[in-house]
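Entry 14. Structure prediction run on the chain below.
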Amino acid sequence: MIRCRRQLAPIIILMLIASACAGSTSSALATSGSTTSDAQAAKHVTDVLKGGRYLFGPFGDTRSTIVATGPKGWVGYPSWAMDGPEPVRADAPTGIGISFFTANGIYSDPCHWDVQGTGGADVGDVAVGPTVDDLVAALRANENYTSTAPSSVTIDGYAGQELELQLPDDPFTKCDNEAGDDSGHAFVFAGPGLSAQGPANRWHLYILDVDGTRLIAVILSYAKTPQADLDLARHIIETLDIT
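Output returned:
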């Protein structure tokens, strides 16, 4: 199952950054009526999804929301994420999951993130600028995981970058743990509370600029995740409605 920091309200990780250029803004304004209707018609996320469109969010200072397809039988986490069906969900070695969130920074070492000694992964120790490109550059510079070269992406009229992180093949049992929790966790980002779901977790990130806020969507998978599940997850991301 997707695991997050218990101190935070559930937020899902999908990195989406909306373009600040006039063309993208015009596109977003042109479709605002239809996306608002989609949000109003979307269902609230339930523990077991029944198919159809579901509402996630709000995210960040813009209070943006996401309407996404929730495949029948998948497991929902209200306002922020969904896993593949039971019993695997997003667990290694074949699981799949999707998460949406915003982030205020990253950690130089995802395994040792408790830099303030508070038991909470709230503040990162890497200075990151305000743009999508700034965040992508910080992720690419980290040597505790590998990353692909970024490429441009546009989702629902919002432009940004996509790239994939390959996290270590490590059970993370010796990583920092949260207050009241004996299990270790690995956090890439500060703020959202999304941790690695298992050894060798892959995070395919979509980072968009939505009205000046970095909105993130992520597909969580593994080398042995079935191709059909990956194709389905990518289709879900490609057909998001962002309001």
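Residues 14-21+34-242 form one domain.
Filed with the rest of this week's runs.
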